[in-house]
Design a protein that fits this description.
single chain; Rossmann fold; 11-stranded mixed beta sheet
C-alpha cells in the first residue's frame, strides 16, 4: 500500500472493470475517493475458456478484448485523468486485483456491484468478499446505480465500531476522509451481547466493557476538530442493524478487516459479506493494522496524525 492510515492519500487507484454498469459504478466511487492528481488502472478479468489456469495471464494490447475498444466507455468516465487499462485471463478476479494492488503499491481498490446477466467477472459478492479478507489496500465497494447517483459527495461517514484494533484502524481512515471532505462521523456499535459466547472466538477481557462504554471510548478518541456522533443499536443481526442505521444520511460506511472485538464480534467476515448485499451506501473496508494496535499505540498514532 502506498501510504498508511494516518497519511492515506489515494493517488493510485485500481478499478475492477467488466464492461457492465457495475464497472462504471466502481469508477464513479473510485474517482470520488481519489485525490485530484490520482492515476487509475482499469483491470478486466475474464475466465479461461475450457481450461483451468493456475497463473493469471495478462493479454497483450493487440489481443481482444483489449484491441476492440473494450475500455472506451470507461475512459470517457475519467476525463483529464491518467488512465491505464489491462485485461487478464484468470480463474479468480479477486486474486488478480489483490496481487496487482500489492505488487504495484496501489492505495485503493474500487469494485462495483453485481448486475443481472454478468457472470464470472467483477462481481461484488464473491470478489468483494475475497478482497476484503486479504487485500493489502483499502477496498471501496460501490452500490448499484452509483454512477447515476445525483449526490456524489461525502458529508457523513459511518464507522462500524466495536473497540477492536481493526475498528481503530477504520477510524483513522475515516478521519482522513472526514477532514478532507469536511464531513461528520457516525460511530455505530451494535449491542448483541446476549447472542454471543464470551471467549468463544478471539480474546475476551475478564470484565468485558459494556457496549455503551465501548462506544463512548470510540467517540472520545475522535480528533476534537471533527464532528462525531455515537449510535448504540440493539440488534440480533449485526449486518442488518448497521445497514438499517446507514439507510439515511450516510454517504460512506467504513469498517475494518476481519478482527475480533471486545464484544466477541467479527467486523469483516460473515458480517462484511452480508453488508455487501444489504447496505445502501458505498463501503470502504480498510486492511488489517500492520502490527497489533493496543490502546496506547493507537493514542500514539493519533498524536502523530494530529500533530
Amino acid at each position: 500500500m502506498g501510504s498508511d492510515a494516518k497519511t492515506w492519500q489515494p493517488r493510485r487507484v485500481l478499478v475492477g472493470y467488466d464492461g457492465s454498469d457495475g464497472g462504471r459504478d466502481a469508477i464513479a466511487l473510485g474517482a470520488l475517493l481519489a485525490e485530484p492528481d490520482a492515476e487509475f488502472l482499469l483491470v478486466d478479468v475474464i475466465p479461461p475458456v475450457g481450461l483451468f489456469t493456475t497463473n493469471p495471464r495478462r493479454l497483450e494490447d493487440e489481443e481482444p478484448p483489449q484491441s476492440r475498444g473494450f475500455f472506451f466507455e470507461a475512459l470517457r468516465d475519467l476525463p483529464d485523468r491518467r488512465v491505464e487499462t489491462r485485461t487478464y485471463v484468470a480463474n479468480s478476479a479477486a486474486r488478480v486485483l489483490s496481487e496487482v494492488a500489492e505488487e504495484e503499491s496501489f492505495d485503493l481498490i474500487a469494485i462495483g456491484p453485481c448486475y443481472p446477466g454478468i457472470v464470472g467477472r467483477i462481481l461484488l459478492g464473491s470478489v468483494g468478499a475475497g478482497l476484503m479478507h486479504g487485500a493489502a489496500a483499502p477496498v471501496a465497494a460501490a452500490t448499484r446505480g452509483y454512477d447515476q447517483h445525483h449526490r456524489h459527495v461525502i458529508r457523513e461517514i459511518a464507522v462500524a465500531w466495536d473497540g477492536s484494533p481493526e475498528a481503530h484502524e477504520a477510524v483513522l481512515y475515516a478521519e482522513v476522509l472526514a477532514r478532507r471532505e469536511a464531513a461528520s462521523l457516525r460511530l455505530i456499535t451494535v449491542d448483541v451481547r446476549e447472542t454471543t459466547l464470551p471467549g468463544a472466538i478471539g480474546w475476551e477481557p475478564l470484565v468485558p466493557k459494556t457496549p455503551a462504554e465501548v462506544l463512548e471510548e470510540g467517540v472520545s478518541s475522535i480528533s476534537p476538530d471533527l464532528k462525531v456522533e455515537g449510535k448504540l443499536i440493539d440488534g440480533g443481526s449485526i449486518a442488518a442493524a448497521i445497514a438499517e442505521e446507514c439507510r439515511v444520511g450516510v454517504d460512506l460506511l467504513v469498517l475494518g478487516s476481519r478482527g475480533y472485538g471486545a464484544l466477541g464480534r467479527v467486523l469483516v467476515g460473515s458480517v462484511g459479506t452480508a453488508l455487501l448485499h444489504r447496505v445502501r451506501c458505498p463501503m470502504l473496508a480498510v486492511p488489517r493494522p500492520r502490527a497489533p494496535l493496543g490502546e496506547q499505540s493507537f493514542r500514539d498514532q493519533k498524536a502523530v496524525a494530529t500533530g
